[in-house]
């Protein structure tokens, strides 16, 4: 099974909103919420994708032949590639009735673990989503990263206990989820967090804490002040605030400001191994990819996940060879042209 077959299969079962497009660029699903589309004008998901396409690669094949190694280290664990499956929640709402959140998470986590990468799992208004996600991670001896929504501190404390029980090697919070329409006016409440509150959440976690939803140098500096272990440069796929810049546009300045003091991930419109290479050259340590992994699960289950990982991994390896980079550490800013 290749990824083209996976996307073809997914079109029959992924629900009315997502079209399982050959290239997931946000165009066919704009303004579909529920669904995978972006908020407001619906253009930010497309901008995320397009800005990666405007970054070009500097080819250089005048170099000695060496064994190519795509492995990366993250919080004491070694992974086959510097890309991971991003968190997706409420799959029945956004992608149709084929899977529950539990079924989706279990397939995604197993598929990623089999291919030596990790998956971030989502959270939701249904408390069972986090219970089931952390249970699935526990079955894989902690090989996964649960993502907690920015609830009130008491609810976060309860969910952190589930995270600890799972043995997860890291935990994340998509703080930009405060802008999701379905989280407004809820009980328990969800919303933005102060540096002091984040510092308390970091202490609750007791494992590396990743803050997702950073789009400015100022935000990255606040995250550093709070003591987080990593950030994800992310505008939530365009789903929380219309007319932001793309993640490709803001990543370089944020990576420079962080200067290696914590891990920097990036997501938003990354759709190929070439895009992964560009993100690393612009300063990211690793990337997250979300929507295409949904297509992979719906179109082929664990085999679909393997097909997608193989596709992205092969493209990354080919790009590295053609630029004279034979390990992730050898990918440098001079290998791209903007």
Automatic annotation (TrEMBL):
Catalytic activity: (S)-lactate + O2 = pyruvate + H2O2
Keywords: Flavoprotein, FMN, Oxidoreductase
Gene3D superfamilies assigned to the protein according to its UniProt record, in alphabetical order: Aldolase class I
Superkingdom of the source species: Bacteria
Residue ranges of domain FMN hydroxy acid dehydrogenase in the record: 37-338
Needed cofactors: FMN
InterPro entries: Aldolase_TIM, Alpha-hydoxy_acid_DH_FMN, FMN-dep_DH, FMN_HAD
PROSITE patterns: FMN_HYDROXY_ACID_DH_2 (PS51349)
Family designation: Belongs to the FMN-dependent alpha-hydroxy acid dehydrogenase family.
Protein name in the entry: L-lactate oxidase
Organism, scientific name: Ruminococcus turbiniformis
